[in-house]
Amino acid sequence: MELQIGDRLSDETEEWEVIGQPYTTAGGKNARVRVQRVGEPAVTAIRTWSAHERITVKRAAAEDRNQ
Q: Domain coordinates of the chain in residue numbers?
């Protein structure tokens, strides 16, 4: 699993930012990560995918995250 804190992903509803360390369940078959809606830090969720699913991720440059 290559998701990192600060990565952004989009789905049919909004753009989300990863705020927690990703982890797997069910013997590595499901991937989960805590996210918050971009621009609305009060809206958080836990997103779940099958481990074989591909998702589109935008990674912030390392220097952007350090500011």
A: 8-53
